[in-house]
Amino acid sequence: MTVLVLIEHDRGEAPEAAWEGLTAGRHLAESLGCELAAVVAGEAGAALADEIAEYGADVVHVAEHELLGDYGPDAWAETVRQLIDDIEPTAVVGVGTDRGNEVLAHVAARLDLPFVANCLAVQPGDDPDDADEPWALTRVQWGGSLLEDASVTAGLKLLTYAHHGVAAEPADSPGAGSIETFEPTLGDAEAVTIIRDRAVESQGVTLSTAPVVVSGGRGVGSADGFAALEELAELLGGRVGCSRAVTNNGWRPHRDQVGQTGTRIAPEIYIATGISGAIQHWVGAMASKKILAINTDPEANMVVKADYAVIADLHEVVPAISAEIRRRRGG
Amino acid sequence: MSDIPSTAMPATAKVVVIGAGIVGNCLVGHLADLGWTDMVLIDKGPLPNPGGSTGHASNFIFPVDHNKEMALLGVQSANQYRDLGLSVDSGGIEVARTQERWDELQRRMTSAMAWGVEAHLLTPEQVTELVPFVNDEIILGGFYCPSVSVVDSLETGTVMRRKAQDKGVLEVFANTEVLDIETEPTPHNGLSKVTAVVTDKGRIEAEYVVVACGVWSNRVANMAGATIPLVPAVHQMADVGPIDILAETNNEIGYPIVRDMDTFCYERQSAGSMEVGSYAHRPILHHPDEIPSNAEAALSPTEMPFTPDDFDEQMEQAIELMDMLGDAEIKYAINGLLSLTPDAMPCLGETTEVANLWSAAAVWVKEGPGMAQVVAEWMTHGYPRVIDAHGADVARFYDWERNDEHIWARAEEHFNKTYGIVHPAEQWASRRGLVKGAVYDRQEAAQAEFYEARGWERPQWYNSNADLVERYDLGPRDTEWDNRWWSPITIGEHLNLRENCGVVDLSAFQIYDLSGPGAVEFAERLAVNKVDKPVGSSVYTPWLNNDGGFHSDLTMMRIAEDTVRIVTGVFDGGRDRFWVLKHLPADGSVTFTDRTRDLTTLGLWGPKAPEVLSQLTGHDLSQSGSPYGSYLDIELDLPGGPAAVKLFRISYVGDTGWEIYADWDHGGAIWDALFDAGRDHGIRPTGGGVYGSSGRMEKGYRLMGAELESEYDPVEAGLARPRVKAADFIGKEAYLAARERGPLAKMCTLTVENLTDAEGRERWMQGGNEPILTADGERIEDGHGRVSRVTSAAYGPSVGKHLLLGYLPPDLAEVGTDLQVMYMHERFPVKVAAVDGSVFDPDDTRLKT
Amino acid sequence: MSLRILVCVKRVPAPGARINVTDDGQSVETAHLGFTTSPHEECALEEAVQLTEANGGTVVVLTLGPPEAEEQLRYAASVGAHELVLVPTDGTAWDPQRTATALTEAIEAQEAAGGAFDLILFGNESADSGGFQVGVRVARALGRPIVNGIKGIEVGAESVTARRAVDAGSEVYELPRPAVLGVKEGLNLPRYPTMRGRLASKKAELVTAELDVEAGGQRLVALRQPEEQVSNTELLGDSPAAATAVVDLLEELGVLES
User: Fold this and answer.
1) pLDDT over 50 at B2, yes or no
2) Is domain B744-849 classified as CATH 3.40.50.2000?
3) Residues of chain C with C-beta less than 8 angstroms from the C-beta of B329
4) Strand residue runs (E) in chain C
5) CB proximity A60 to B under 8 Å
6) CB–CB of A300 and B46 under 8 A?
7) I need a surface site. Which of A246, B233, B363, B453 has the fewest CB within 10 A?
8) Among all residues of chain B, which has the CA nearest to that of C193?
9) Would the CB atoms of A147 and C224 count as touching at under 8 Å?
């Protein structure tokens, strides 16, 4: 019996989510008392084997194929499907990133099995060997504003864990991490969805990886009003974000939007200025380690939920913070 | 929970105001100005927009309304916004698509003149000069009011609130929900008194609590066992844009607001887009429990999800008027909630159930600051000073007007009249027959045309008297409007009463007995005139407020050594009842009993009245046996046996006769006996058109709520007696001062000298605040700034003139003065015919023979 | 190049800052709520309308939902959709497999009747249940390629170029037509309906396609609220002078190193 974890990576680079998935998969394997295995699509993934072992995987299945040189949902999913045929795992798990959910959905479609996305808790049935016994899961709806208790009945459980739902944590005792390479059969049908090209649209730190995000909401008042936020973000090596209201007003491009339908972030500190904190926005920001709200309304949802607050006009406070940073650096 | 709120909730406060919308905020500001301290303002939502109706209001004020309270408080409110620098005079145009509406705009011009508001009628071309995107092919013209303004109600609220905070007399708690309002009983009057407000942030003991909770007000008042009869109702609004011609103004409001009156819609520029609002859709009412919390609501609690199906017709009409709207995007659309009451007036004043629990509700942004001032003055001085506010007094409602069934039915009925053409005498269609008099079945049989008075059904005339039209050679008036809610039968009934006699149903009289050792002393305290007279006497007397203005006028009878009976009209019965209970001695020396439903009253008047009544009693009914102003306790001989009655010789119609008070159950038998006895004496059932209108007006008798208001004193109303009684009474000091000062206006009867309008039709003023003008057509104001206007109007059949009542400054209040009255935007010559007196039988010989 | 494009949309509640659950836990309490189209799908619809405005063609909008979902179809028509198809449910939430099977059948029927779709657009995931799979299942069942997370679409004669936004830029995919895409908000800024559009939408033809398919293996047990986060907001100040405290905090958190 095996729990198989899909390791997300981009040409050999694994995001934090990969380790979250392994951590969660390890917990699941422990509860089932079974083996933890990982699958990496593409030769480049082999370099991750040592680290994968640190997270407790006994076996690292490395799929090698010329069509696995870069990401393609069909190629990855077909690879996983063929490995499933081979090793017959109890569960295949990933993390609910774009790629994680996409690949698992493709696997599920191929096998016509249920797929449960974005789980926070997984409770296997009492008898791990009974494939017909439903598992109880808790997953997120509404981007995390609601929880759904669900049951899933399937011989093979396919699921992802909600991103940021589990903190990545290496195993107390590493797994063997033995590499088992295999060559899936892939063809034209899988080739069509492989990345053809890339466009780099921004340099350096991105919204989802920035250690500091300085966001503005309706209270900023205009596109020009974001200049002060830009300045502060730059001083902190961070990025500027915004709420959906701002995007809808055309003050910022959508790629700056933090929220359920924008980017979900988890910076060291999230500085939310002039943002009331509707659900749509909150679920994108709630994984932040610390939140500082700057708002004139002490009762704004964002203020009430924040760790720190300044109750004043952002148009005065933000430049003052920038000035103070410059003063200290100058001094 | 956030620990941000700056201070802990205090354990006590002088006054807690619940609700930080335009009303609550302005109220604390006005209270601070009036010297109040130790105030707390709470709201369950955040500030500055806690999520009530203020937050989504369209924020414009059209200062013209036919109703005096609404019009003048609208102007007062507009001025307050203006003084704060938080309004822009955008101007506004009401356009007419139909002839009927065009006629209504003539009436608007008349009201504009009454309230001193600048207004002009525009041709379609002139409308498009001001608003070029209006389709001038579908309109007949417009009513333009340059002082229509757009206000910032949220900022005004903030400024008013901060003013009180800056004075150090107010603490504000947002996001604080009221869970309960505690009261304690007040045994002497069977009511209770407010003691504390319980919130989710703590309990505050308070001397006064004000409910300024907008659409939630009734629910909050219910926590204390009080009622504020209002219901949340939807007003749909869509914001469409961007529209270039609007954006090019670079202005929040660059074009006058257009009210498309016939479609019950308005178009109001909001920067680069247009707000299209509607009062045309089906009435959509909500129970307060259906309003989401701030957290649950997608927008705000009172911006409920838009139901587009209800708005489609209005969109088509809006596009018809302004084609450019069709291609504008609907960026924001709501089912916005606002408050409706059973009679379309606000709910202000102390609640009748719970002492010191006040209502400041059912107030829209357009009248918010003014209404808040009314309540603040009321709390401070015991009565509003800025204006008479009896129409908004929450005490006006009877019990049967306070339940949801009634509130909903009436709100549904008048919602679509928001921009409607409402006749001054217009009757309700819903919830009729709530309270029927003791002889209702007889009246129905006589084909009574019932008018409703706060639930009571009262015959206005009897269609069975249609033959009188022929007998007296009467006919209809020249225009549909003047005939609406009127019948020439009422003239016939009048002439018959003057010639023979008539029976008037007075069942709706509100009758209250004060009894106990302190009753007479207490009665003296209420009344200007002396009540402490021998048993069997009565007195007609004003009741004043502390400022010496009218609270009421009514009759009081000494019916026993320790019992005084109060008889008052149905329109003000609720307010009078509350006034008595509020002032009732706390020592328990007076007991209040409502006898209204135990007793019924029939009036019998006319030269044949003594002859008729003498057939039912052997008692001497001459002026010596039954003197004017006194009553007799006797038995009438009825076929079914004797019936005890009080025969009260009095008259409100100008002919001799009696009010006959009897047990409710005897009403029918007395009615029958009177008609049997009067068969050969021309007796007729006679309606309110005579009693409350033509009969009383020929005599110049005043009517509470029309001639008598808190803005006027008895000296001005001509009701001051030569001497002032020794006993103290409410308002005495002010009354003495008024006598000293003399009147600044005098109640006069005017006769219309020529009724013919420019089209050769005779027109009949309705008594709907038509302005009285100088002979040169100038508006008249007295030394207090009160406008001279028609308070009542009726044709006086016995004097052959259309009669108007109104106050005039002393220099014009001379018999024979030639003046004008404006009606439907035309001016008609009038003449002062009587000052403080009557034009018919001025010596009252008919009453005393 | 006339295009026939299908957009699949879902009717979802439009909640505020708190979503309540019905007592039985089976659905969101919608008594106070309005309904809308899932935001990603609004963009899908806008994209389809723009593509047909540029190239000519037809936009068909399909929804699976309660009869009230007609409101979302009419809305689609008000912003430019041409044909409306409703697959009515009993009002309960259908699991992803069941939904996908029904949609597939409905699409096949539409194609049999009106011709094949050049492009089928889904939202990346629904705003409410967020299953992240229905589009993939449908595409697979139809034997067409699909890529999710798309924020840029160019339709060529033989293929569709699609851009998926990632952190630092975008990934470019090129799919042979006919293709399926799962799109994300940010693809475009959807238009609002005009008044005329709204009025015209009432006259748009709406086809109802009754379907009954078997449930899949995932079942909703109950919805519930996450535990309330207890936050003790520390007030750093109520004026610009708070900047000092803020920078102290930034130092403490170690984000101030320059």
Assistant:
1) no
2) no
3) 191-194
4) 3-9, 11-14, 34-37, 57-65, 83-88, 119-123, 146-155, 159-166, 169-176, 179-183, 206-208, 218-224, 234-237
5) no
6) yes
7) B453
8) B329
9) yes
When CB atoms are compared, the residue of C222, C249, C258 closest to A329 is: C258
Q: Hey, of C142, C246, C252, which one would you mutate to test binding to chain A, going by the most A CBs within 10 A of its CB?
A: C246
For residue B795, the one-letter residue type is Y
Enumerate the domain spans of chain B.
12-52+154-231+343-401, 58-151+232-328, 510-594, 744-849
Q: How far apart are CA C47 and CA C27, in angstroms?
A: 31
Which residue of chain A is at minimal alpha-carbon distance from B43? A299
Q: How many CA atoms lie within 13 A of B396 on its CB side?
A: 25
In the block, tokens 């011609």 appear at: B245
Query: By the CB < 8 Å criterion, does B5 face chain A?
Result: yes
The set of residues, in sequence order, having a beta carbon less than 8 Å from that of A134 and lying 6+ positions away, is: A125, A151, A152, A153, C219
d(CA B458, CA C71) in angstroms, rounded, equals 49
HSE, side-chain direction, 13 A CA sphere, residue B11: 0
Rounded to 10°, the helix C134-142/C96-114 angle is 40
Q: Which fold has domain B510-594?
A: Alpha-Beta Plaits (3.30.70)
Q: Determine the residue type at A71.
A: Y
CATH topology of domain B12-52+154-231+343-401: FAD/NAD(P)-binding domain (3.50.50)
pLDDT in tens, B485-525: 999 999 999 999 999 999 999 999 999 999 999 999 999 99
Q: Where do the structural domains in chain C lie, given as residue ranges? A: 3-208
What digits encode the pLDDT tens for the residues A132-154? 889 999 999 998 889 999 999 99
Q: What residue of B is the nearest CA neighbor of A298?
A: B4
CA closest to A301 among chain B residues = B295
Q: What is the ipTM of this complex?
A: 0.93
Tokens of B400: 């049967």
Question: Across residues A280-308, what is the average pLDDT?
Answer: 88
Dist CA C99 CA C141 (whole Å): 12
> What was the pLDDT predicted at B170?
97
Residue type for position A307: D
CB contact under 8 A, A261 and C127: yes
Given CB atoms, is B758 within the 8 Å cutoff of chain A? no
Select the CATH number that applies to the domain covering C3-208 from these four: 3.40.50.620, 3.40.710.10, 3.40.50.1450, 3.40.630.30. Answer: 3.40.50.620
Distance of CA B331 to the CA centre of its chain: 39
Chain C interface test: which of B133, B296, B311, B325 (most C C-beta within 10 Å): B296
The residue whose two tokens read 């004017």 is B628
Question: B273-312 burial, b for 16+ CB within 10 Å, e for fewer?
Answer: bbbbbbbbbebbbbebeebbbbbbbbbbbbbbbbbbebbe
For residue range B346-376, what is the model confidence (pLDDT) as tens digits?
Answer: 999 999 999 999 999 999 999 999 999 999 9
Query: Which one of A10, A123, A142, A265 makes the best mutation probe of the C interface by having the most chain C beta carbons within 10 Å?
Result: A142
Residue B6 predicted with pLDDT over 60? no
- Chain B positions touching C42 (Cβ under 8 A) are none
> Which chains would you list as touching A if contact means 3+ CB atom pairs under 8 Å?
B, C
So what CATH class is B58-151+232-328?
A: alpha beta
Q: Report the pLDDT value the prediction gives residue C32, as an integer from 0 to 100.
A: 82
Q: Is the peptide bond before B242 cis (omega within 30 degrees of 0)?
A: yes
* Interface contact A298, partner B, CB < 8 A: yes
